[in-house]
Amino acid sequence: MLIGEVARRSGVSARMLRHYDSLGLVRPTGRSDAGYREYSGEDIRRIFHIESLRSLGLSLRDVKRALDDPGFVPSELVDDLIRQARERIASETELLTRLRRINAADPAGWEDVLQIVALLQALGSKSAGKRQRAALSSAEEVPVPVEALVEAVLSEKDPHVAGALRWALARSGESGLALLAEGLGSPVAEVRKRAVQSIAEIPDGEATALLRDALASPDIVVRGYAALALGARGVADAVPALIDMVVAGTNDVDAADALSTLASRPALTDRIATGLVDRLGHDTAEPFARRRLTQALADIPGTTASRALADLSHDEDRAVALTATYLLGMRDER
């Protein structure tokens, strides 16, 4: 079969067949009387084998090795091809993500595109200073797509850069909340922590609803940040979690301050005081937990807290009794 017919049947161009011949990959078995290449059935089978191996990503050199070396073991080469394919996929996925983010920013012209690209590159810089400047400038110049900000804040380890990123996210409104909510469910504890911290800095609205949901999180850190943020917003749902924080000694001073703020609302005063007193009488309350609970009663107004402190001034635990006595004296001076 002449080269033109082989090209038509195999789909491999005559030029490529000549290239295969020059490399020794597949040489036609014979020549016609006129000197044209003639391919046998075995030659054509080899051509199809070559194309099959090329479709896997093998170089022509590796194809020749695979076909000519009887002892050739493909496993190592296939492993290498898998690695290369994964690298290409990761690279293409990264490019696709970058293009989508640029498109989401709705640039008005190429100058905007260039600024967005520069900011995205800066957010991924190894320099904390560059990342921080990118976060701060994102809300003032061409805005960085919120998806990029969320990805950056959930992975940022530097506290100063993280603060700048949370500020930029808060400026962008509620558009990043869905992605941050996914972060709350991450298997990585640090990611969950960064997610709830970011949500806490976004103003009331859907963010408050997410923080309420976070009160039921199995992660004590997430529950704590959510409770503190909700307490600052005057949300009564945070009271049980805040009392738990006082008992556990986890950010207990901040939790006590939040309870004091909430207790300034008459409807919550007795509820908070009663909640603290109930935990004081709990059998499992450890000595240090009882002292923290006593201290937390200090800034809770009303007669319930005062009566509790009066009773505690005679407590068997001397540290608790002295603390309660001191706090009663402070209340009398007000």
UniProtKB/TrEMBL annotation:
- What PROSITE patterns does the annotation carry? HTH_MERR_1, HTH_MERR_2
Give the matching InterPro entries: ARM-like (IPR011989), ARM-type_fold (IPR016024), DNA-bd_dom_put_sf (IPR009061), MerR-type_HTH_dom (IPR000551), MerR_fam (IPR047057), PBS_lyase_HEAT (IPR004155)
Where would I find the HTH merR-type domain in this sequence? 1-69
Keywords noted in UniProt = DNA-binding
Q: Does the keyword rRNA-binding apply?
A: no
Query: What Gene3D superfamilies does its record include?
Result: 1.10.1660.10, Leucine-rich Repeat Variant
> What domain of life does the UniProt record list for this protein's source?
Bacteria
| Record SUPFAM superfamilies | ARM repeat, Putative DNA-binding domain
Q: What is this protein called?
A: HEAT repeat domain-containing protein
